[in-house]
Design brief:
269 residues, alpha+beta
């Protein structure tokens, strides 16, 4: 990119220097011509006329070159934005796609090379390398997140207790298999506000969860009697927060749901 810009500026400076040299040469020749002519004149009036003519010629030369400088400045003034726009059009398109989160760009370097300066192409190549690094990092990050998530889900599924994960709007994002076996109407992707469940779920899990979601704060442990299990279950909650500390969901733990315990209440064990 450095040479792409400076090359055009150097051309402009070279033209100005050549024009300045031409102006100096023309003025020097004009002064020499008039000086030689004045040396041959002895008449005062003729010398005065020659001096006036020399002054007029020098003035004309100055105005002509000032006009040429003005033209070059105007051309340069309008040309710079044009060639910058043309040179960076493809780069701008790439950056716009990146800002939209589109990293998997199909960059045809051979086609871009035909339209762009070699230094702009170098910038495009570096953007492509950056995208490859971003894609690689993003993929590694996703794989690590999925790996940790699968570990956590595996631990939750192996636990004898039940767990429900909800977002702050009440949508069930995760449900332990053992809870689904006991309460078949509970399922992932259902909304706990809008769905209807069997009475023992409504009078325990739903009753406990709604105030937590509405108040966005965890509640202490609470026991509820479940007729189908013939014992009390204990519900505990924890708020899930984002990096900024804002509540984004709730994790519920449901204890004493193992059917192997039969009708024996947890409080009596």
């Amino acid at each position: 990119m450095k040479y792409f810009i400076t090359r055009k500026i150097r051309y402009f400076i070279v033209v100005l220097l050549l024009l300045a040299a031409a102006q100096g040469m023309v003025m020097w020749l004009t002064l020499s011509t008039h000086s030689d002519a004045m040396k041959k004149l002895n008449d005062t009036n003729m010398l005065r006329e020659r001096a006036q003519l020399m002054k007029k010629d020098i003035g004309n030369i100055l105005w002509i070159f000032l006009f040429l400088y003005f033209l070059i400045a105007i051309v340069f003034f309008f040309y710079i934005p044009v060639f910058l726009h043309r040179g960076f059009t493809d780069v701008t398109k790439l950056l716009k796609e990146i800002t939209r989160g589109n990293y998997n760009l199909d960059i045809d370097e051979s086609e871009l090379a035909q339209r762009n300066d070699e230094d702009v192409m170098e910038l495009i190549v570096q953007v492509r390398k950056m995208l490859n690094s971003v894609i690689h990092f993003d993929q590694a990050k996703k794989e690590k997140i999925i790996e940790h998530m699968n570990r956590i889900l595996s631990l939750l599924k192996l636990a004898e207790n039940g767990f429900i994960i909800l977002d702050i709007d009440g949508d069930i994002k995760f449900l332990s298999d053992n809870l689904n076996d006991i309460f078949p109407l509970l399922a992932e992707n259902l909304n706990i506000f809008d769905s209807s469940f069997q009475p023992e779920v409504q009078n325990s899990i739903v009753k406990y969860t709604l105030p937590i979601l509405q108040g966005r704060s965890a509640h202490g442990p609470q026991q509820y009697f479940i007729p189908s299990l013939k014992r009390h279950i204990t519900l505990k909650s924890s708020i899930v927060r984002d990096a900024g500390g804002m509540p984004i969901g709730v994790v519920l733990g449901i204890f004493n749901i193992d059917r192997k315990k039969g009708g024996k209440d947890a409080d009596e064990s």
